[in-house]
Specification:
Blueprint lengths: L10 H17 L4 H29 L3 E4 L10 E4 L1 H25 L9 H22 L3 H19 L5 H32 L4 H5 L6 H18 L8 H7 L2 H26 L6 H23 L4 H16 L2 H7 L4 H35 L10 H4 L1 H15 L5 H15 L3 H26 L13 H15 L21
Antiparallel strand pairs: 1-2
Helix pairs in contact: 1-2, 1-4, 2-3, 2-4, 3-4, 3-10, 3-14, 3-19, 4-5, 4-10, 5-6, 5-10, 6-8, 6-9, 8-10, 9-10, 9-12, 10-14, 11-12, 11-13, 11-18, 12-14, 12-18, 13-14, 14-16, 14-17, 14-19, 16-18, 16-19, 17-18
Length: 498
């Protein structure tokens, strides 16, 4: 950390957090119509801040720091944006902005129309999720990270039950129970670390903790808590009903971003606070859970009768890929193989965010056009909703890992790292997962392109369809970006190694 706790352009992470938080607070008393206008006005500003953060981190070749109130740790709190933060801030800004424009069709309030209760709640909640996600990405101490996780939970949970139906209320309560369990475990672990080291700052903790029993217990508790919030199998039971019951815009944000906040914090814990303490066996265990999620989640998706449940179980499966990087990083933390695994894992998180947001939005459009989301009644969707079906297919290419998509680049890096590291069994899991993903994507496309009369030919693509299609195209084009450009995500990674 710099002596004065600040770096040039270090205020950018602070602005990235304060912009949506201030927008959320201001939107609450404004009513649905003005809250919508405020949220939409903030989206391009937030995107510019995220882009500026990425450019500043890349140019500096080092993380950006900002000490709140100019009080540096351990007396004060600091925000830190490294390459991982910058990449995820940019992904969050793109997904939130696209979702906001998409949501106008359902939660917008035209001039002269009465303000709906759901619309009044949606816009502040969307801004709250954005602010909490950004705070989780740049928090540099474990308590601020905890606050971010709680804000994320209490902004995301109401989206699940926004329609007020009994089944969505039950799904929201299940989500809340798992989230609170994760919070309790995380807090217990953080308290143990504070007792050992006398600080919760990530950088300071890295130099003060060792492999003693309290530290190992704290690591296990915090890891379990973060896994519950990330919905890694077997702690995934809250995710399918929650994501399937939320409105399309809510499902897109939940799947693309909410589960990523806790995953990023897990990376901070393992490779920042506890760098070198969790051994290879712990990394193998996390990857084994990830492999089980990939295979079992994909099989469950193949068996689902409803489109939204299929996509929700697909999220369970795709989350599993994120954890294949852990054994590769644990075995060889300072090698080129580890750098590949790190880049592959972060690229998987970003490409999944774009593809899964596009897929949920497409499913919502198809269900609205056809009148239901049952796969057995999907025949003719290619005629009634051609753009959403195309969007689903393009997003599916990324999830399958078909070139030249971003998912292909991510999975290829993970596969290469597994082979180079002598852990070929993870390569087999990646290949099997791609084939199973192709199975459920083909199932939807085949049903939609089959003959039948799901409705009249669709009119010219409207703005929501263009937004969903744009996200899917971005997820594919991500694979065409030169690999050297992803050097951004390496900035700050070596600082976290012992």
């Amino acid at each position: 950390m710099p002596p004065d706790g600040a770096t040039p352009w270090g205020f950018l992470p602070l602005l990235a957090v304060m912009l949506p938080v201030a927008g959320m607070v201001a939107a609450l008393p404004l009513g649905a119509r003005w809250a919508e206008r405020l949220a939409l006005a903030l989206m391009p500003v937030g995107l510019l801040l995220a882009l500026g953060t990425a450019v500043a981190v890349q140019a500096a070749g080092a993380p950006l720091w900002h000490a709140l109130g100019h009080w540096a740790p351990p007396l004060g709190l600091a925000l830190r944006a490294d390459g991982l933060s910058a990449a995820m801030l940019l992904a969050a800004a793109v997904v939130i902005g696209a979702t906001a424009v998409f949501a106008r069709a359902q939660f917008g309030t035209p001039a002269g129309a009465p303000e709906a209760r759901a619309a009044f709640a949606f816009w502040p909640l969307l801004l709250g999720i954005w602010g909490a996600t950004n705070l989780a990405l740049v928090a540099n101490d474990l308590f601020t990270a905890y606050v971010a996780l709680e804000l994320l939970t209490f902004a995301a949970m109401p989206l699940v039950a926004l329609d007020g139906r009994r089944e969505t209320l039950a799904a929201a309560l299940r989500y809340l129970m798992f989230a609170l369990l994760g919070s309790v475990l995380y807090l217990l672990g953080a308290a143990l670390l504070y007792g050992v080291a006398g600080t919760l700052d990530v950088v300071l903790l890295a130099g003060r903790v060792d492999g003693s029993l309290p530290v190992v217990v704290a690591a296990a508790l915090m890891t379990a808590g973060l896994l519950a919030k990330t919905a890694l199998l077997p702690l995934h039971l809250w995710l399918p009903p929650a994501h399937a019951g939320a409105p399309a815009a809510g499902s897109a944000v939940l799947s693309a971003l909410v589960v990523k906040g806790s995953f990023v914090l897990l990376l901070r814990l393992w490779y920042g606070v506890l760098a070198g303490i969790p051994g290879p066996a712990a990394g193998q265990l996390l990857a084994a859970l990830g492999a089980a999620a990939i295979l079992l989640g994909s099989v469950a998706a193949l068996a689902q009768p409803r489109l939204k449940l299929l996509v929700a179980y697909s999220t369970v499966a795709q989350i599993g890929y994120l954890f294949l990087m852990f054994p590769l990083m644990a075995a060889m933390p300072d090698t080129e193989t580890a750098a590949k695994a790190w880049t592959g894992g972060i690229l998987q998180a970003v490409s999944h965010a774009l593809a899964k947001a596009a897929m949920f939005l497409a499913v919502g459009l198809m269900a609205a056009r056809i009148g239901h989301d049952r796969l057995d009644g999907l025949a003719g969707a290619g005629r009634a909703a051609p753009v959403p079906l195309l969007t689903f297919g393009l997003a599916g290419l990324t999830l399958m890992g078909v070139p030249p998509s971003g998912g292909f680049a991510a999975k290829w890096l993970l596969l290469s790292a597994a082979i180079e590291g002598g852990q070929w069994w993870w390569a087999l899991v990646i290949l099997a997962g791609g084939l199973l993903t192709g199975g459920y994507v083909y199932r939807v496309l085949a049903a939609g392109l089959a003959g039948g009369g799901a409705g009249p030919p669709a009119p010219r693509a409207a703005a929501p369809e263009a937004i969903a299609l744009g996200l899917a195209i971005l997820s594919v084009l991500l694979g065409l970006v030169p690999l050297a450009a992803f050097g951004l995500v390496q900035v700050g990674r070596m600082d976290m190694l012992p």
